[in-house]
């Protein structure tokens, strides 16, 4: 069963409510007492809806992005595949984070971190704060789980509000083409990326391959 991490309630028009008869007023209040959307962990049953949402939001070329090269063939970081659901339980938003090595430090040791993305919200639900709530839930959960930093490729004006900055990734590289001003980082632990330099590479769990049998 998916855990619910967060929820947001819609606010009714109090003036309009005051003009309703008693029974209707109770029904309307019961409706608005339900959260407008909830944030929870992704389940296997969400895969089809998630992929359809990503195709609509990001287009057919999304598989060609540099970030996708890191995600391909991997499972998201433990507990860090989150979704938003409406009152009917329909998937209306998604964000996932992935285990990576953000280059190495001055001692040559890999710098463990997370790569965030993709973040997407159904076009019919835009403007309701769902993306922001997904971001904050993801950052909070990653912090609780002891991760040191999060990287992403995205629009700086949007992600800066969550603390991301291009200054944290100055000495890091993505595999394949990427825009330096869109390559951003957030330290969950102070100084985590200070010495990080080199190529970002995947380090997460591999997806199981159907039909693959090990012979010993």
From TrEMBL:
It holds the Pfam family Acetyltransf_1. SUPFAM superfamilies: Acyl-CoA N-acyltransferases (Nat) (SSF55729). Keywords: Acyltransferase, Transferase. Transmembrane segments: none annotated. This is N-acetyltransferase YhbS. It comes from Rhizobium paknamense. Residues 37-189 form the N-acetyltransferase domain.
């Amino acid at each position: 069963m998916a855990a619910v991490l967060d929820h947001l309630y819609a606010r009714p028009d109090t003036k309009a409510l005051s003009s309703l008869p008693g029974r209707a007023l109770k029904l309307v209040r019961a409706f608005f007492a339900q959260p407008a959307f909830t944030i929870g962990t992704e389940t296997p049953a969400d895969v089809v809806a998630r992929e359809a949402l990503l195709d609509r939001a990001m287009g057919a070329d999304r598989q060609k992005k540099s970030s996708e090269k890191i995600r391909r063939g991997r499972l998201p970081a433990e507990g860090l595949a989150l979704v938003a659901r409406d009152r009917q339980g329909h998937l209306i938003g998604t964000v996932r984070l992935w285990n990576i090595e953000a280059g190495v430090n001055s001692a040559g040791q890999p710098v463990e971190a997370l790569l965030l993305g993709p973040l997407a919200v159904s076009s019919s639900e835009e403007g309701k704060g769902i993306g922001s709530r997904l971001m904050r839930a993801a950052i909070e959960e990653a912090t609780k789980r002891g991760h040191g930093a999060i990287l992403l490729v995205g629009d700086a004006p949007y992600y800066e509000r969550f603390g991301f900055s291009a200054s944290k990734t100055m000495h890091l590289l993505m595999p394949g083409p990427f825009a330096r001003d869109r390559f951003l980082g957030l330290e969950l632990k102070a100084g985590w990326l200070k010495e990080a330099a080199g190529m970002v590479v995947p380090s997460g769990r591999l997806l199981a391959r159907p039909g693959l049998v090990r012979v010993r």
